[in-house]
């Protein structure tokens, strides 16, 4: 391998991570449209050349943030569910975990809401965003079906539609919570209504809860 190639390859993930972090902070502070590539580069401490070696546009930068946020959210929820004991796999406990809202979620909500409005006005941006949302919903639906089986339940409705409903409940709830945080703390609507929604949209499995491979 030519001298220096390993160093460049090793730096690339760090550069990309720094640009993503700077982009999220700058988008949240100034807005997606108002933010310039120069502002992102300045905050990250990199040049425009470093930026364009990772991202072709601000839209591509946002979509990378979208995928990163989605993966992190799904991973956190999966880890929390995996930590549950067998007796804790209940609809109420699942809803409680799904209702958790991290403090940094507010910045992401500001950024993604503005980009969604942009996508509504721009058919091409809408098409691309929809593909990324589709992949995230598939992960949510897959994880939901798995954890419900552990609780001895199965959905009686289309999993993709139900994933859309959960996302709508969360995003709509957050919109109200960030406007009236004292009247409606983040996660309140999910905690109050998601258990009943899950109960109404699932049925008992005839064989009961799915056992883990190492269970006797």
From TrEMBL:
Domain HTH tetR-type residue range list: 13-73
A Pfam family of this chain: TetR_C_6
Superkingdom, natural source: Bacteria
Keyword flag Metal-binding: no
Keywords, ordered alphabetically: DNA-binding, Repressor, Transcription, Transcription regulation
DNA-binding residue intervals: 36-55
Cross-referenced SUPFAM superfamilies: Homeodomain-like (SSF46689), Tetracyclin repressor-like, C-terminal domain (SSF48498)
InterPro entries: BetI_C, Homeodomain-like_sf, HTH-type_TetR-like_transc_reg, HTH_TetR, Tet_transcr_reg_TetR-rel_C_sf
PANTHER family: HTH-TYPE TRANSCRIPTIONAL REGULATOR RUTR (PTHR30055), TRANSCRIPTIONAL REGULATORY PROTEIN (PTHR30055:SF241)
Protein name, entry field: TetR/AcrR family transcriptional regulator
Organism from which the protein derives: Streptomyces gulbargensis
